[in-house]
Amino acid sequence: MYCLQWLLPVLLVPKPLNPALWFNHSMFMGFYLLSFLLERKPCTICALVFLAALFLICYSCWGNCFLYHCHDSTLPDSAHDPSIVGN
């Protein structure tokens, strides 16, 4: 389970508030995971635990799925309010 310590922080990286950057963010995270899996070759148990956690987060639209944007999730109020400019 040592290799899992390098995979779990990926689930904690916040998604950008700007919708124009969601595609770039998902591509970066996807390439990071692909390169990690090819270079480090984590054990099967770690890879399955990580993929199961990623599937559950993305399937439930809870939290921070970087593969796609859930239509049910909303942006924070500060992302919609143009009057707030870099307080």
Largest sheet geometry: none
Number of helices: 3
Look at the helices and sheets and give the structural class.
mainly alpha
Q: What is the mean predicted local confidence, pLDDT?
A: 76
How many E strands?
0
Bulk shape = globular
Beta-strand proportion: under 5%
What separation lies between the terminal Cα atoms?
43 Å
Helix content: 40-55%
Order of helices and strands: HHH
> Spans with pLDDT under 50 lasting ≥5 residues?
none
User: What's the gyration radius in Å?
Assistant: 15 Å
Structure description:
The chain crosses the membrane at residues 20-38, 45-69. Keywords: Membrane, Transmembrane, Transmembrane helix. Pfam families: BC10. InterPro entries: BCALP. There is one protein chain. The protein has helices at 22-40, 44-60, 77-80. With 87 residues, it is mostly helical.
